[in-house]
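User:
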Amino acid sequence: MCLTIGDAPTLGLSEARALAEDLRRQVSMGINPADEKASKHSVPTFSQFIEEQYLPHIKTYKRSWGTDVSLLNNHLLPRFGKRYMDDISRQDIVKMHLDRKASGAAAGSANRLLIMMRFIFNLALRWEVPGVKDNPTKNVPLMPENNKRERYLSTDEARTLYGAVCQSENPMLQYIVPMLILTGARKREVLDARWEDFDFDRRLWRIPTTKLGKPRHVPISDGVMSLLGAVPRKEGGEHVFANPATGKPYVSIQWAWNTARIRAGMPEVRVHDLRHSFASLLINSGRSLYEVQKLLGHTQVKTTQRYAHLAPRTLLDASNAATVAVGSVMGVMPNRVTDVPLVAVGS
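Assistant: Predicted structure:
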């Protein structure tokens, strides 16, 4: 058996002898070093797995795959690209996580790298990639994030904002903003909405491509019916909220939105806050988290759980329901120990 143990110009004599002795010892134990080396070569490097399997997979369904590419090129490939998949340990993951935070990044930024590595190795396990026996991110906790800002519009604020968007130079903003508030849909979902996606008989709006790459259905409420009935509709026009000048969906409404929110005295309100406001209005109207989850298109209820604190009045009403239910009983319950006749035990 012939086996190369190193590069002659760079490998010293003593090192070569030590490596040869180690190989001889493996052979004496019945281990074939050549087989071990061949097995190692079947394990892809991190870079190979990303290029040959991961990226082709996510490009088939993930609209934001460009974000993955950015994170990979800027952070993960420089660190792990040349490493074999089975050579990346939990300690490596922990160090990556801590290093990102130590570089001055926010906890959320560090967590995104951890979440991405977790997903990558879960796919490798599911696809039975050679050498990958477990996920090195397992039991590595996310860092607490305290920078999540929540902004919800009150009913009065929503009215004020609507008045401002009605004065916008963008004639479609007065329809786009209410549609966002009334449905909780994402900005791009509304801007790309087509008339053919609305089934007015069944009162359903089919959003063909969502953030998760899967279609979902949104009920058409009475408010949405009225709104859509007021939207100017051009003959042959495909998109509901199209730019009148082009007939195509707006690439961006940021300038018009920024002008309107400043006019309304709410410069801190983001377009995405309209989605939060939809959820808060539902919760504070007594709707369940399950209902809100379905309407927002969340796959996990824990994503919707962030709105649970919005209903103190609703929770108080629920608590009072118990009082109402046992009220008649409370009327006959004793108020003092002396009201209870004593019974001798064992008599």
